[in-house]
Amino acid sequence: MISRRSFLGAAALTSLLQGDALNAAQKGQPGLPHFAPKAKRVIYLFQSGGPSQIELFDHKPRLMDFQGKDLPESIRNGQRLTGMSASQSSFPVVPSKFKLEQRGQSGAWVGELLPHTAKIADNLTFVKTVHTDEINHDPAVTMFQTGFRLGGRPSMGAWAAYGLGCETDDLPAFCVMISTNGGGQPLYDRLWGSAFLPSKYQGVKFRSSGDPVLYLSNPPGFSAQSRRTYLDALGELNGITTQEFGDPETAARVAQYEMAFRMQTSVPELTDISKEPASTFELYGDDAKKPGTFAANCLLARRLAERGVRFIQLYHRDWDHHGGLPANLPKRCKDVDQASAGLIQDLKQRGMLEDTLVVWGGEFGRTVYCQGHLTATDYGRDHHGRCFTVWMAGGGIKPGLSYGETDEYSYNIVQDPVHVHDLQATILHCLGVDHKRLTYRFQGRDFRLTDVAGEVVRPILV
């Protein structure tokens, strides 16, 4: 039985919990950032499936000389192959069907399939030597998102939310959106999860239809005042639980309920783009008016960034072109090209690019050799983790730079390798975080996003 005194004590504690839990979630950890940040927030445009660096960014003119010839064993050098091409008897080299040209004052190579990206090349840094040990989608995507190939580790956005909190009380620190473009590899909620970090740091997924966030609306006949009364009563019960057990997840639950209450007002305002001027849609394209498209999600990402969200993750799928690449790659590029470039331009004209870090790339690249049957008009490429391109722009990143060099086959790294952990360490560095010092003790070990590796890629920093 609950005595009147314990109930009133719990009610008083609840009022503290509601404030303290929310503040703890929003303010981050003491002592962070470790040093003055260049970026206040991150927008990560993740292209799930593995875009081909050969068609888009890594110009290799000598491939025309090698067309149809078997990739030399001295180049392949015993590399692990996926189950899709391991049984091939030959590995014929196939050059890109699409042209790459040098763009802007920086002379960065950008393919003809990305004309809008080409126009902003001087704002970007192309890291051409990103590499991963993973050769299949799920472990490779999991590595990029969590720093480890297996599920069970916190995502990068959760680490940022845990360490730095948020600049607003009305929206989560970490928000996620997935394009509704159909096909592609599955994406699991654990990719934006908090794992062993408190659950208040997990990503909140926005949807393209119905309620933008699940369970945000009140049930029919249940007023906002009724919900407020309900939450107060529930908070008192949670206060009793906290007094009795001291479970930090109880405080997290209170904070999440209070955040959801605030989001009933903030999210409808966020997602209402009716007052955006025509110039906005000239930047992002008409697809930005269609909920769930990559363009619409890019526009929402800018609006989230304006409102103080710390980490914004966009996923766009179906870059996995084992066959039919000449027909399918242009479709994916058309999905994302104008909106990606529009986002950079929009942030820049609002004075936000200088403190917003934007990252674009997938979990690996594609092989120079053809997977399956090579014809005069058709080819495919298998997964390739040894070298691929990721571009970055904004807060803390030096613009107009191409970093790293691959061999003439875009198969191996010749100069300046950048491991996934190095990229993650660099992203955290831009946020003012020393990746070696952002840790969380779990099961007797201090875990971190970059595990036991990672070096900041200093030559690309301003």
Number of helices: 13
Tell me the total number of β-strands.
Answer: 17
Query: Overall 3D geometry?
Result: globular
Major sheet description: 9 strands, mixed
Q: What is the alpha-carbon Rg in Å? A: 24 Å
Query: How many domain units?
Result: 1
* pLDDT < 50 stretches: 4-18, 21-25
**β-strand amount:** 15-25%
Give, in order, the helices and strands.
HEHHHEEHEHHEEHHHHEHEEEEEEEEHEE
List key phrases describing it.
about 450 residues, alpha/beta, two-stranded antiparallel sheet, 17 strands, globular
Q: If you had to describe this structure to a student in words, what would you say it looks like?
A:
The protein has 462 residues and is α/β, with parallel strands linked by helices. It has one domain. 35% of the residues lie in helices and 16% in strands. The strands form five sheets. Strands 1, 4, 5, 6, 7, 8, 11, 12 and 15 form a nine-stranded mixed β-sheet that branches. Strands 2-3 form a two-stranded antiparallel ribbon.
